[in-house]
User: Fold this.
Amino acid sequence: MADILIIANPASGKYKIIKPLLHKIMVLLQEKADKVELALTEYRGHGTYLAQNSSSNIIIAAGGDGLVNEVAKGVVNTDKLFYVLPFGTKNVFCKEYGISANPLIAAKHLDLSNIKKIPVGYIDNKIFLLMAGVGFDAHVVRNVEKKGVRFKLLKTLDHVIHGVPAFFTDKYSRMYIYVNGKRYGFYHGVFAISASYAGTYKLGIIQEGKINCFLVEKSGRLSLFKAFAPLFFWLGFRGTHINAENIKLNGASFCQLDGEYTELQNESTYIMIKENAINFIAPVKKL
Assistant:
């Protein structure tokens, strides 16, 4: 018996636009399942609660990468199946896992017989499906959240706007990671289990089953620019690149997880990967 629960965020700037499409998708999915229901989140973290406590065996996140992360946390290490409908701005998870950018087509591609186990990353008992970032990366996301998103339909532009003060005026402290008995000091870092940065650009060669660390070890705006600027010319990240299954991180009080600002409970914590953590319904494109 296949029961589907779709979880969406009514506070999203796009919800009024996507509401009719969501109901159209629900009708389409009724051909694939015995029951299809829609649940709307009421507060941050509610998507996790809804996914954890649902009796449905198929959970679909209908939103952007923030909601995807939230809902995924509710299905990790369970028998529930997980899928995503792309209603966000970047939809990096969908790009990484081959889900169509068109939500209706993505729903048509859902195939309950095509299940793939996917990994999650952990940091401070929180999960990420794509990457975690500290330093500049996290400052930009924090600035967006503190100031509020003025352009709900142009969230990418808002990140550019808030990236300017993060680059020119924000102060950065030295952090450390410990890998295989070695200590690395750095000021900016991305810890990835996927290759895509900001949905479009490739960080570099990603080793599966590892946390891929991309670090800026020197301070100053020039070092930051030299490391990150090549990304936007499709040349990859130009800093230090380290792979490991288990990393100790010291000195970070907050980070970004899959594009969402997150405070860390401990400035000394671990970053690790767990493979086969989520039963993901891999899309099958119909001929």
